[in-house]
Design a protein that fits this description.
Length: 281
């Protein structure tokens, strides 16, 4: 079982939303140190200062996970200063929320670079050192969007389908090493963090409160669960898609559960501030 107490935890997208809550709870549960990676300088400065004032050991790095050189440089610095993390939480992600024809080329590239390449590159940067140590737990936050198509989520869904396939393949590779290596893949539906502001909850799929989701995620990490799907109804998606003809699935999920209209009034977060200069805190 993976123990959060006395561990070093690295969280990407760690200065807001799910990443911020995860950092707080890991420290409350006895983590020795939390390492925060985030692209937002202001949020990172404020949060690291807040946690240090409470007596916690926290390191903060401004990192663009879509930038391979940035990831490598920051990872090398972490490895030199604190060694490889015991738990790596790949949380950073973005969503555009438009019809595909309305996406700019930049939005497509940026979404895939952050949501897919970023997750892979961050993991790759630390994995050799983690393997040398012989133990580690990698947590990849995918999405229920990786299990189902949805209008106005085409690029986001594609990115999460990719993360799901990669994460499960990585798990099998690491299990074959015979070392104490674990991978947990998380596939949540909508969470009330502001990232999906404006969405309408599908039938029987409430928008989750972030605190409850984080508790479930940390419990899954502690129990070395392979996959965590939240809320419970998400478990039915692979079964329905496997058994039902596509048009029947569309009718039940789209019209019955109203999943396919859930993004119609999506607004999301306010535009992010410009990418700041990268530096260590």
């Amino acid at each position: 079982m993976t123990k959060i107490a006395n561990s070093t935890v690295l969280i990407t997208g760690g200065a807001s939303g799910i990443g911020k809550l995860t950092a707080q709870r890991c420290l409350q549960l006895g983590a020795t140190r939390v390492i925060l990676w985030d692209i937002n300088q202001g949020n990172l400065d404020h949060f690291t200062k807040e946690l240090r004032a409470q007596g916690y050991k926290v390191s903060g790095y401004v990192v663009d996970v879509a930038d391979a050189a940035d990831v490598q440089q920051a990872a090398e610095q972490v490895l030199q200063e604190t060694g490889p993390p015991d738990i790596l939480v790949n949380n950073a992600g973005i969503v555009v929320g438009k019809l595909f024809a309305e996406h700019s080329f930049y939005e497509i590239e940026r979404t895939l670079n952050i949501n897919v390449s970023g997750v892979m590159m961050v993991t790759r940067a630390f994995l050799p050192a983690i393997l040398t140590r012989g133990s580690g737990h990698i947590v990849n936050i995918a999405s229920a969007a990786g299990l189902i198509p949805n209008p106005r989520m085409s690029v986001y869904a594609a990115s999460k389908w990719a993360v799901l396939g990669w994460s499960e393949s990585l798990r099998l590779e690491l299990e074959q090493t015979g070392k104490n290596m674990h991978v947990t893949t998380i596939t949540p539906s909508y969470i009330d963090t502001g990232m999906f502001a404006g969405v309408k909850a599908p039938v029987l799929t409430p928008i989750m409160q972030p605190e409850h989701f984080v508790e479930a995620m940390l419990d899954a990490i502690g129990k070395n669960k392979i996959i965590l799907r939240k809320p419970t109804i998400v478990h039915l998606l692979p079964l329905f898609r496997g058994l039902l003809p596509a048009r029947v699935f569309d009718f039940i999920v789209g019209r019955g559960f109203k999943v396919y209209t859930s993004m119609q009034n999506f607004t999301g977060r306010a535009p992010a501030e410009a990418v700041p200069e990268k530096r260590h805190h």
